[in-house]
Amino acid sequence: MKTHVANHPLITHKLTLLRDKRTDSPTFRHLTEELVMLLAYEATREIRTEKISIETPVAPTTGVHLSKPRPLVVPILRAGLGMLEGMTRLIPSAEVGFLGMVRDEKTLQASTYANRLPEDLSGRQCYILDPMLATGGTLIAATHYLLERGATDITIICILAAPEGVAALEKSLTGAPVTVVMGALDERLNEHGYIVPGLGDAGDRLYGTV
Ligand code: URA
What we know:
Elements: E1 2-5, H1 9-19, H2 25-43, E2 49-55, E3 60-66, E4 72-77, H3 84-90, E5 95-96, E6 98-103, E7 110-116, E8 125-129, E9 132-133, H4 137-148, E10 153-161, H5 163-172, E11 178-185, E12 188-189, E13 195-196, H6 202-207
Parallel strand pairs: 1-11, 4-5, 4-6, 4-8, 8-10, 9-10, 10-11
Antiparallel strand pairs: 2-3, 6-7, 12-13
Bound molecules: uracil.
Uracil is lined by residues 79, 132, 134, 193-195, 198, 201-203.
């Protein structure tokens, strides 16, 4: 597993606005979309392409287009949905699958409650979207789920991560073809499982508390 912390002043600037508790939901959603576009630019450096021949108005030349099978984008419900628009703006031809994960409060095991994904992911490049890498339980379960279905290359895109979550992923996914791209690596998790300083509950800030 590889990790990459995006280190760009525009990302830090937008993250600062996102963290601010005075930022309202519409602005939060808009900033999330912009941030995901910037993160996705980093996260898609290894996206597979193939050479094609074209003609410009002046001369024949070669370029590239995205390889088939098309990349699969998988937002984790609910907060990952807030990242989908930014990602599909950058890769409009990507396919989209959905995963709903829930954690058993007793066993702390994450399990799938909703799944709208192709059964066979052989050879697919997948991009998992989840804004907060906190304990890592959900992302570990989601990543194993895609690997078991044949995904050969998985990139997890998070807005914020806690060191505890990154360590848990590293332990569970050693040697797996997985990269985590994050906007920032924060200090720690608090006793309630929130990232510190973080931005609060990402789902609530995107969609309210209903
Ligand atoms: N999920 C969130 O939405 N926020 C956190 O700080 C941790 C997990």
